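Cont'd.
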Amino acid sequence: MTEQIKPTDSELEILNILWDKGPSTVREVHEVLEQSKDAGYTTTLKLMQIMHEKTLLKRDVSNKSHVYTANVSQEKTQGQLVKRMIDNVFNGSASQLVMQALGNNKASSQELEEIRKYLENIHPNPKGS
Amino acid sequence: MTEQIKPTDSELEILNILWDKGPSTVREVHEVLEQSKDAGYTTTLKLMQIMHEKTLLKRDVSNKSHVYTANVSQEKTQGQLVKRMIDNVFNGSASQLVMQALGNNKASSQELEEIRKYLENIHPNPKGS
DNA sequence: ACAAACCTACGAATATTTTCGTAAATAAAA
DNA sequence: TTTTATTTACGAAAATATTCGTAGGTTTGT
């Protein structure tokens, strides 16, 4: 069994920023975070330190301002979160999750088109709709 | 804005049982729960009482053993959880979630077929571009 | 050199979630 | 009736997650 990645909501926010920006200092992460929520600087610092202890983040201590990097891939993390949702919320049915994600205008028509193409690749439609 | 349904993991387990079995007593829920985890009876009771306070559950007190029912629909709850995942994990892209859910053999070929049919039936509302 | 700004580490307060022991009431069994 | 089992209510412990103040060190600006 591969290790379970289970970031909390706050941790996920930080991972998102690091996946987006790449290696960053606490200050850099905090400045992005501030735009959407209000938390003190040391709160962000503490969170990232904890994430480092959990090995969710790597860090480079050679400079005064430590530089943190995500130590789990976005793909793999997304995969585990989706799998968990399929199991816990959709009783193991991936298709039910997909349909829920496609309903209610959650996806634009452009996105729907993307998905159609993707589907044809992994499961070509013999009739060619 | 509609009320936010945000069940915890434990609460979701209970909701799943109630959605599946319909109105049930604490004992009935607990017996199902026991099969997959080990927790004491009063733990289940307390959880369901809290869920009732939060109005996640309704209850009928006319008998000695109270009968609980889910007070949120499975559809709506699933929808909100999926939307939250799209926002927090996939930066708002439903298609990315879908592709993640379809990759890595998370869906059987039968499921893929279901999804393909579902997609053909969708009449996309052109709001995104 | 001195002060101001910045950074980390640490500990602890808060908040939330999960767990369960115990007491009181009711029902069932003996 | 007396005992045993079942159920609720309550409170609080335990576990986890989030927040922040403060101290001490380093760098930067004057």
